[in-house]
Specification:
This protein is mostly helical and about 450 residues long. It has helices spanning about 1-10, 15-25, 50, 75-95, 95-105, 110, 125-145, 155-160, 160-170, 180-190, 195-210, 215, 225-235, 265-270, 300-315, 325-335, 340-345, 355-370, 380-390, 395-405, 410-444, and strands at about 270-275, 285-290, 290-295, 295-300, 350. The chain folds into three domains: about 50-235, no CATH class; about 240-400, no CATH class; about 410-444.
Length: about 450
């Protein structure tokens, strides 16, 4: 009986379906190629979990660079100007388009390996797109750097809203092309000027952040994977943190680390906050003897977009430091509520152009939520450790809490003094009431 049942329920496998399935499983992944974890892959699609934080921070609003948003109808306005910039360069250099096309074609494999997603363009079509985008960027930086002339009524420079969106779009992780490609095009089209491409890039973006020329000079030969990476690296100070926190670097395996408390709770514990106006970068946070030095940061749409794209790059690209991730996690711990943002604003650390204090706190909490983070490997591990040690010092914390409770405001202080005086007067009155009685009994 069981044998008959097995025979009756036997399933015949369609060999054609097997062939189709074998073809499908052998087809290489397109949305995240199998080598996307390698050091050559540095331009990524943004994970949905991060897109949901602020979609417009990742999607280009005015210009498409590279293949991910190529052909987007909403970005055609600036696309039409790329040919004009290319023509300007060809006219100035006297070189043919073939020269620049051949450069890109020779880099075809290297370019494709830079993207986490497979590019559905042939070598010639890819070269056309990359020449247009690459030359547009290089000429843009040259025009802003005043290395080449610009028409006084050029809308890209004359219309403020165009420049504002352009700066943000060029720092979005999905809107990048390999820096080595830009460097090759730049070298082929350069004249006798000795300025580096990196210096022109940093000068262009400096219109959004306004750093001192001496700071930019330090990074004029900075290497990077693309524009976002180069600009990100220009905020990473290379000074030796070991000299500031040697105890947090030696023997770290035996040390414990905890994330800091919110700013208002640290304030109650006696931690003081001060804007570090001498720092070259907002990343240069220090803690000394109860004083937390944090460089001033202007929270606006530019920084919001920049932070999100830097954190995304650091989370997707394994061969880079995690400075921005560390900074976002640290600030997210401090800015837990609108009261925390208000406290740091009062100390000139946070300049809020973002919206309400609640909006700033919500932003940092959303970005820092659920992202992998290792305190022991972070550049702020010394600050984490020092803050934790300070807050564990019971005597200092109790004294600070006492002062905050009874002397935190003038009215509380007056009330505490009045209560103390009343208590003292009551004690004196009691003393002079009781003392004569005992004194007279003693004489008897």
């Amino acid at each position: 009986m069981p044998q008959n049942m097995n025979q009756n329920h036997a399933i015949t496998i369609d060999q054609e379906e097997v062939k189709i399935m074998m073809t499908e499983i052998k087809r290489p992944p397109k949305l995240l190629n199998k080598l996307a974890g390698g050091s050559s892959c540095c331009i990524f699609r943004v994970p949905r979990s991060l897109v949901e934080i602020k979609k417009e921070a990742y999607e280009p609003q005015i210009v498409s660079i590279g293949p991910y948003h190529f052909g987007n109808k909403d970005l055609e306005m600036i696309q039409e100007h790329k040919g004009r910039f290319l023509d300007d360069m060809l006219t100035r250099t006297g070189k043919s388009l073939d020269v620049f096309m051949n450069i890109i074609v020779s880099m075809d494999k290297q370019i494709r390996a830079s993207y986490s997603e497979s590019i559905d363009l042939g070598p010639n079509d890819l070269a056309k797109m990359m020449v247009l985008d690459g030359v547009f960027l290089i000429e843009l930086f040259r025009k802003v750097g005043k290395l080449v002339s610009t028409h006084k009524d050029d809308p890209i420079f004359k219309m403020g809203w165009v420049s504002s969106f352009l700066v943000r779009d060029l720092l979005k992780i999905e809107n990048q092309i390999p820096f080595c490609l830009l460097q090759n095009l730049f070298e082929e089209s350069k004249d006798n000027n000795t300025r580096t491409l990196q210096s022109l890039i940093l000068e262009f973006f400096n219109y959004a952040v306004d750093r001192q020329p001496t700071v930019l000079e330090k990074y004029k030969n900075l290497d990077g994977k693309h524009l976002l990476d180069i600009f990100r690296k220009s905020f990473i100070n290379t000074k030796d943190k070991n000299s500031i926190y040697p105890e947090a670097v030696v023997g770290t395996n035996n040390l414990s680390y905890t994330v800091p408390r919110p700013a208002t709770k640290l304030d109650v514990s006696g931690v003081k906050f001060k804007a570090n106006n001498q720092a070259d970068s907002f990343l240069d946070i220090e803690f000394h003897d109860g004083l937390l030095l944090i460089p001033q940061i202007n929270m606006d749409d530019f920084y919001g977009s920049f932070f999100l794209n830097c954190v995304t790059f650091e989370q997707c690209y394994s061969d880079c430091s995690k400075h921005f991730t560390t900074y976002i996690v640290f600030m997210g711990c401090l800015l837990n509520t609108s009261s925390d943002v208000s406290l740091l604003s009062q100390n000139d650390i946070v300049v809020n152009y973002f919206g309400s204090d609640k909006d700033v706190a919500k932003f940092f909490k959303a970005v820092g939520k659920d992202i992998p983070f290792n305190i022991k490997n972070s550049y702020l591990k010394g600050v984490f450790r020092e803050l934790d040690d300070y807050c564990r010092n019971g005597l200092l914390v109790r004294w600070a809490e006492f002062k905050h409770t009874y002397f935190g405001s003038p009215w509380v202080t007056v009330s505490a003094i009045a209560a103390f005086m009343l208590l003292s007067l009551a004690f004196v009155q009691t003393f002079y009431t009781v003392f004569p009685y005992y004194h007279s009994n003693g004489q008897k």
